[in-house]
Every structure is written in structure tokens, then in C-alpha cells.
Amino acid sequence: MRRLAADYTGFFHWLHEHWGDVVYFEVPNGGHCAVFDPDIAEEALGRSPELFQKDTPEFAFEVIQSPCLARTPFGDEHRRLSDLMVTAFTPERTAAFRRIAVSEASSFAEELAAGSTVDFRAEVERYTWNALTTSMLGAGRELGPGPGLAMMRAAKLSFIVFAMPGYRLLRKLPLPHDLKARRAIKPLDAAVYDSIRKARDPDSRETSLIAHFVQATERGESDWSFGSDSEIRDEAYAAFVGAWDPAVHAMAYIPHYLSRNPGVRARLEEEVDRVAGDRPLRAEDLDRLPYAEACFNELLRLQPAAPLLVPRRAVRDTSLGGYFIPRGTLVDVVTHVMHRRVDHWRDPGEFRPERWLEGQACPWGVYRPFGIEPRGCKGVPLGMAVLVAGLAALVRKWRLEPESDELPADGLEVGILSSPIRTRVVSREAA
Ligand code: HEM
């Protein structure tokens, strides 16, 4: 536990180096089986999702009471709810999400001031919050990220409580972070219910994710129907929690990787300048920025937003990769190790976006930043639009120089980063 708490990802690299591709270990909340091999990961999560069920404790997100897609056990209900989420990404709605991402990204880059020093983590929290809440709720909501921050802190503290002995008892106490989250979330609740009400208007042309939930279920276009508005609210919150944290996480590393790799930065600047020239960035440009997208593939390889996929619980005694797995074992697929395996990747420690533009760059099944189907991420088009638009808008104007050489550290904040990322904003013209 000491080793795990002190260096979360280092602990799993140590397990892999010393014990191999499948490792059983115990902590107070039970037996775990860490998986570092892509075929065994696919065997469990891809081929037997009904046997290895996602194990998100129901109390982890106190402000979300309904099961939601991310927590619904694999089976018909999960299939129907997945379908509802995936069908949100029609060409029309995806184009609308991209326009929102580009517009918010342009404001984000415009608001930075040359020569200033900012906390880059707070900046990307605000940008990704604006882009995601506008996509999910619709335009015209002037909410800062306060409610989301309180909700994320409460969720993360709950996971820590979950790993402690006596967690069931602890969880029944009125914990201060939950009380704070309940209070802080009120303005967001008001905005969500307002968005649901507006989407019910038969003349509504709203393209938000919430409007899709409401309209697809009301018009009978979907096999899934929500029982109440609070279920719709919970689904939107769950999608939001699942989307915001990884987006902040991925963007927060940009200054470090670009300032350490001036060749990559120069190629990225050249691509963005060539595509957008002197005019404002447009949504259609996102398709013409393959190098910017490759930068995120590479960032998510080295710094996956989920270094460990959500643990899956074996629902009965079984075997995995030829090893006996007792019922109740939690299976942890460790992407942070898989993404850096020397036997699968050339120069795995190097930040080299070019590898994504060369054939054979990604060995099959070893790259899992969006999880594993059928329980993989359902929001990739929106997530990638937010990331690529943010990066393109930044590099058009600025070079970002972090004050410290240290990589952002894991912790309790959104994006699992614990401290501010003090970053100098340098105008490209002055650089
Ligand atoms: C860069 C952004 C994103 C990253 C890196 C990311 C990553 C992930 C990962 C790793 C998982 C699988 C977790 C596991 O199996 O343990 C996942 C699941 C999920 N993601 Fe994302 N995500 C992103 C954005 C989004 C967005 C924008 C949405 C919604 C609009 C979304 C909705 C979901 C949902 C609903 C699931 C659960 C699927 C299920 O359990 O069947 N994600 N995501």
C-alpha cells in the first residue's frame, strides 16, 4: 500500500518488471490481478465482458444516483444505452461539436497574455469545461468550472476511501467533500434541467448531447428510455465526468512535451500555419491537422488519461492467460505499462508523433487510451475535437514554457494532476 500510494504508476511498472505479464496482489479492498499483456487484456475485457464486469462502486459518485452507461453491467441494457450514446454522433451533431470546440479554443488562446505566467492546468480546466458543457447542455450557459471541480474532488476522494479498510462504514458518514459537492452543483443542476426542458420543445433545433437524449427517447428513435429527468441529468453528469478529466489530463502535458521537443513543435506550427493561414481556425480544419492528432495519440500513449482501466470484477471462478482467477478478483488492465513495452514499441520512451503517420506505428491491441470494446469510450469524436482544436489554437499564437522541468504529478485534482503547472506564455513572434 505504501509503494502504491507513493508512486501509483511506478508500482505497476515494478510489478511487471519483477513478476511478468499477469500478477496477483492483495490490498485491503481485495485481490487484484494486474494485466500487462495486450492479448490477455483482450481476452478479459474484449471477449468476456459478461464474466469480467466493470466495478465502479455505486457510491463513488455520490451526486450521481442512477446506474448510467458507464456503470450499467454488460448485457442488453448496456447495449441499448451504448447505442443511444453512439447515435448522438451524427455528422450534423459532430460538426456542431467541432464548431463549439474551435470557437472555445480560439477564445482560450485569445485570452492568454504575452509575457504572463499562468497556471496552465487552470487554463485547460476552463477551456475544456466550456467546450464540453456547451456541447452537452447547449450554448448560453455562463457557468465556471466550480461545480465540476467540487464533483470531481468528491469522486476522487471516494475512490481513496474505497481502497481503505472499513470503507463501507466510512462512506456512510457525511463526508465534507460530498456535502461541498452537493452545494456546489446546484447551478449546474439548474442549467441541466433547463436544457432538458428546452429540448422538449417540438420546435427545438438544439444539437446538444442532452437534446439528443431527450429527443431520441421521446421520438422513439432509441431502444432506451430514461425513467425521469434526473436519470437524464445523471447520464449527462457521468458522460461529463468521463470526458472532462481525460481531456484536462491530456492537454495539461502539452507545454512539457512541446518545449522538450522543439522539432515536434516546429512541425506542428508549420502544419497549423499551412492549414489556417491568417484567417481564424475553422471546424473543417480539424480534418486537415493529422500531425496535431498524432501529437495527442503520442501524448495519450505516454500519459494515458486512464493509466489503469476501471477494474473489472470476476463474477465467478475462472482463468485468464492460463492462470486461475478466483471469483471476486479485480482485474486491472495497465495501459501505462502496455503503452511503453519495449517488445511492442520502438523507442517507447521517446515522444515521437511521427510514429503515428508511419505504417505499423501502433501494434495491434497494445494501445488502449480509450479502453477496450464493447466497453470502450463512447465519446471519442467529441474528445478528440476538443483536444485538437485546443492544441491548434494555442500553437498558432503561443509558445508555452513550463517553469519546472518536472512532469505534472498525479494527485487529486481534475486531470489527476495535483499542483499548478506554472507556464510562461511567449508570443511566437517574440520567440
Ligand atoms: C480525450 C478524451 C477522452 C478519453 C481519453 C476517454 C477515455 C476513456 C476510457 C479509457 C474509457 C474506458 C474506461 C474503462 O474501460 O475502464 C472511457 C469510457 C467511456 N467514455 Fe471516454 N474518454 C474521453 C472522452 C469522452 C467523451 C467526450 C465522452 C462523452 C461524450 C466519453 C464517454 C465515455 C463513456 C460513456 C464511457 C463508458 C463506456 C462503457 O462503460 O461502456 N468519453 N473513456
| Mass-distribution shape | globular
State the major sheet. 5 strands, mixed
Low-confidence runs of at least 5 consecutive residues = none
Biggest sheet, spatial arrangement of strands:
1-2-8-5-3
User: What is the number of helical segments per DSSP (H or I, 4+ residues)?
Assistant: 18
Structural class: alpha+beta
Q: Would you tell me the overall average pLDDT?
A: 91
- Give the C-alpha Rg: 21 Å
Bound molecules: protoporphyrin IX containing FE
Characterise this structure.
The protein is of the alpha+beta class and 431 residues long. The protein has a single domain (2-427), classed as Cytochrome p450, CATH 1.10.630. It has 18 helices and 10 strands. The chain has a 5-stranded mixed beta sheet with strand order 1-2-8-5-3, with helices on both faces. A 3-stranded antiparallel beta sheet has the order 4-10-9. Helix 11 (186-200) packs across helix 13. The radius of gyration is 21 Å and the shape is globular. The model has no long low-confidence stretch (mean pLDDT 91). It binds protoporphyrin IX containing FE (HEM). Protoporphyrin IX containing FE binds next to helix 4, helix 5, helix 13 and helix 18.
List keywords for this structure.
alpha+beta, Cytochrome p450, 431 residues, five-stranded mixed beta sheet, 10% strand, single chain, globular, three-stranded antiparallel beta sheet, binds protoporphyrin IX containing FE
